[in-house]
């Protein structure tokens, strides 16, 4: 899969959920993880991050939204349940993205929502915890951007195989006057 992504949380306060989100981000291949104005005990986060992501995944902690620095070209995608949000199944994930979720007992701040290039929502009746929401978003990124065989048209049919990759010829680009 081309591109890269990071995962983060604003104002996270439940260390077990934060550890779960960190482990999921690591498992799905995140390039980095970040927190903005967090309120948690790092020792407790390690209890649910059984992958020990902090040893192999860059972690960034920002005191507020204004201090948050993302890699050049990255589009920020907020995950928030609002009427205006794009439903996740209809969303085209950016090649270079950073996903940010809000705290368990609240929403993304107005400052964070203003900073987002997109705001998506998981079409559910009510919110789930931040770890579960993050895993759903990353799974959606994986299945929508990855190269997988097509799903069968019914439960008894075989999966539609991927066509064999064909390497094209050399493309020479010349400067036009």
Automatic annotation (TrEMBL):
GO terms for molecular function: RNA binding; RNA methyltransferase activity. SUPFAM superfamilies: alpha/beta knot. The keyword Transferase applies. InterPro entries: Alpha/beta_knot_MTases, rRNA_Methyltransferase, SpoU_MeTrfase, tRNA_m1G_MTases_N. GO terms for biological process: methylation; RNA processing. Residues 13-139 form the tRNA/rRNA methyltransferase SpoU type domain. Keywords: Methyltransferase, Transferase. This is rRNA methyltransferase. It comes from Kiloniella litopenaei.
